[in-house]
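Supplementary Methods S3. Input chains for the assembly prediction are listed below.
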Amino acid sequence: MPYPLDPNKMYRMPTHFGPRAGPRQGPDGRKFECIDNPLGTAYSVSFLTNAQQLQAFLPPGFSLDGEPVVTVFTNHMTEIEWLAGRGYNVLGVSFPVQFNGEQDQVRGSFLTVLWENLTDPIITGREEIGFSKIYCELPPPTHLRGEYHLIASWLGFKFLDIHLSDLRELSLEEIQTRQASATSDGTLHYKYMPRTGKWGSADVAYPVLTPAANSNQRILEQHVGAGSIKFHPARWEDLPTQYNIVNAFADLEIVEFRGASLTKTVGGKDLSDQRILR
Amino acid sequence: MPYPLDPNKMYRMPTHFGPRAGPRQGPDGRKFECIDNPLGTAYSVSFLTNAQQLQAFLPPGFSLDGEPVVTVFTNHMTEIEWLAGRGYNVLGVSFPVQFNGEQDQVRGSFLTVLWENLTDPIITGREEIGFSKIYCELPPPTHLRGEYHLIASWLGFKFLDIHLSDLRELSLEEIQTRQASATSDGTLHYKYMPRTGKWGSADVAYPVLTPAANSNQRILEQHVGAGSIKFHPARWEDLPTQYNIVNAFADLEIVEFRGASLTKTVGGKDLSDQRILR
Amino acid sequence: MPYPLDPNKMYRMPTHFGPRAGPRQGPDGRKFECIDNPLGTAYSVSFLTNAQQLQAFLPPGFSLDGEPVVTVFTNHMTEIEWLAGRGYNVLGVSFPVQFNGEQDQVRGSFLTVLWENLTDPIITGREEIGFSKIYCELPPPTHLRGEYHLIASWLGFKFLDIHLSDLRELSLEEIQTRQASATSDGTLHYKYMPRTGKWGSADVAYPVLTPAANSNQRILEQHVGAGSIKFHPARWEDLPTQYNIVNAFADLEIVEFRGASLTKTVGGKDLSDQRILR
Amino acid sequence: MPYPLDPNKMYRMPTHFGPRAGPRQGPDGRKFECIDNPLGTAYSVSFLTNAQQLQAFLPPGFSLDGEPVVTVFTNHMTEIEWLAGRGYNVLGVSFPVQFNGEQDQVRGSFLTVLWENLTDPIITGREEIGFSKIYCELPPPTHLRGEYHLIASWLGFKFLDIHLSDLRELSLEEIQTRQASATSDGTLHYKYMPRTGKWGSADVAYPVLTPAANSNQRILEQHVGAGSIKFHPARWEDLPTQYNIVNAFADLEIVEFRGASLTKTVGGKDLSDQRILR
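Predicted structure tokens for the full assembly:
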């Protein structure tokens, strides 16, 4: 008399103990509104690279959209309701793309990878919504005499340094102007799950979109200034599961840095509007 | 000109940077023999429970096999070649089952959940071979005056205590006798991956088997004795992603403990013989 | 030709590599002003206990001052300049005392112990200024639906839970009124260093004072409300270096809780005005 | 009625809660025999440097003894009884010296610094027995295809790499020959404690000796081979409390490496025979 799966509930492995709570399903199935949480402090640095290098990273149906500007960002989140008030940090690398499918034509930011420093959101993010999440250590930033420094490492191997400086706070009007000029349809991903035993083939392979709309996120304050990033090349021995990802970024030409920002926000959304692109 | 996926290579998200190294694919595609590594120290405690409670955990096609004896085990591994010589720890809960499918009839150990203290093997394990791996902290055991104590926690909430004592070392002959009497076809799992956007439905849902054969694992020494386990009930606030799993085990009746073991091993296999059951 | 110690510089072990940087001595001997750093978020809960229990904790020359009200507080600090912009967390237990010495008569808060989650300030604090600092894990608080929860643990053994709720923000006027009513001379400590080889005797044993004055700390916001604390009794096996400290607090009668506060601050002082009481 | 200090017991700050358990005083004052614990795995690499550089590190009364050969070693200890069966790791740097005092003339190894990855033994070691212990992260070694790699870092800044390779196991006879040829009187240290408020002056400043005798330590196995070390220069921003220590070692000339060893041991002593040199 094996257990049935309730088609109105969400599951992840292990499925044997009932529905699994996560960002889109709390205890008793409740939803998380994401209005007064999470709190986020995001640091971002952009740089111009060359288009040819970025094209090599494009999944089927994707093409570059406009200038090849890569953004490296972190977000340090606290008071996350689905984690019962805990927090975690993320580090992402993205650039603007278009997706031209049979049904869908969208423009947005392609999130090529998202490192996180907690496993639970990595699992829900990969499996439920197709984010390319992997793990690294993301300690809190240091802030010394106006300069912010962030690092990322994996089991002690530091693979990234980020610096921000010369920050000035934007006025409310400036923030609104920047937001109004954003025309993205959302964030694009490519979900892939290998098939067990048939190595090299996939159980799942499709593009997905995080729509830009529907978010309760509000900017509390925003600062802009100068910034730089430096990925450190790794041997397989240093990063045996991630060396090729880090090396791909370390190899990217940096034509020029395009500024940095520090943004404090509250609210968000549960991403239950994540959808497959066709 | 998007990137192609090489059908002879293994991928995991992100797929944009080429094949991904892992337990079954090293740099340049090399395999890991698992002959002189990893080193493992495994602690195990078993108890008799009641069959009805275990039946509630059975996926489709599974039934109990023999006495309802649950085994809680940890394995502390070092010198893992696919991690370039690093280690990590695992904690599993299993019991004997049969699987009766259209093609496959197998008997073995059902691994209901496997906690691990490192994200990278959790990802490869879930996605490539369908292990129900999730994260927890697994500090090294304490050993004081003949008693071993192991704990498991998640972000500071301790959900399990394991104690072993009165251990005596087995002779080589005793070890061989025990191994010869094992008749398992392997370890059973149920792989499940949710479908993005169609919440409640699955992209992937099938039973998988880790065959017992083909392993290079050798027992270096083995000790048997007494042991006990205690799962601590959790509120959603304590373990917002895992409370129902821990509570399911905390609710299990412990009719009697059935002994404990400490086993040191070397070698293993890369689990590339993992296969879907039909 | 052994190295000389420069009498105008500060040293800690190891002394062989020149003066040691710390809170009161930066590189090139510079001082830290502590004006725009550190940032602090402090959580505090007080309770009335019985005087007799507290008297057992009083060093020579100390006596209770007024009601036996114990305050358990944490402070989560970031952007600390002497740590080059890093942060750390502290957890203290204090109550009001008088010190009557031959020369000094002071009233203030007796800081019986201060747990910290970073070794470097523990060493400087113990040796330079006589704080009774010891180590524990102090993860960030959780904040869920208006309730804050803080924990403290040592190698996985949780020995303290703190809860705050029903917080309301104080007006600037209320904050100023509370500050004006404070009449403490500062914080009292008892510095003790054992003599090597002559076990049971001391190299150093004297009371010290952190004067209340001279601080650049400013309150940015303050909230008051309800709170509770719970120390969990420990065996030697659980906390082999600290069990008697935790058990002393776990044994304290809690006659009634006396409220809680959450205070955000900026600035401080380098504590170079710390002095021996006589 | 303040508390008395029992002259037959050992204390550390805080002294208010009774005697403090530690390596030389267990619960109820019991001693730790250190016969079947701790277990240790030590890795060591030596190199010839120039004498002049080492002389700059010598405290009063110390002089170099023989060739200026520096040894960098780690020890990974488990099953430590005074920590109720837990373990921790250490990293030390030493070289051979003589001490010529008014009463004492001793030859031995000068332990200039000992990093440890746990605060509790750092405190007892500094204050009770005058070891120059400070904190760093010391993850377990990696072992890949015959090569061992160890690292040391502080809050994510890696300051040391150690490599060992080409190890061959010594016979029992070889081990005994090596032990018999050792003529050290023990390990030398310089204990220093600053005086509160009188910055630049000391409460405590004296040399101490860990006698070579009286230990229950036994070598279980020993391997010797090749090795190398590399200290990485640090800015104050990288290691704000330790940059000058690490830089002193990074500046040391490496004339040639003098081999490496891997040694597994059981037992030790409680170091209660630590004594002041005069």
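Residues 35 and 219 of chain B are 12 Å apart (CA to CA). Chain B touches chain C at residues 137, 139, 142, 144, 149, 151, 153, 155-158, 237 (CB under 8 Å).
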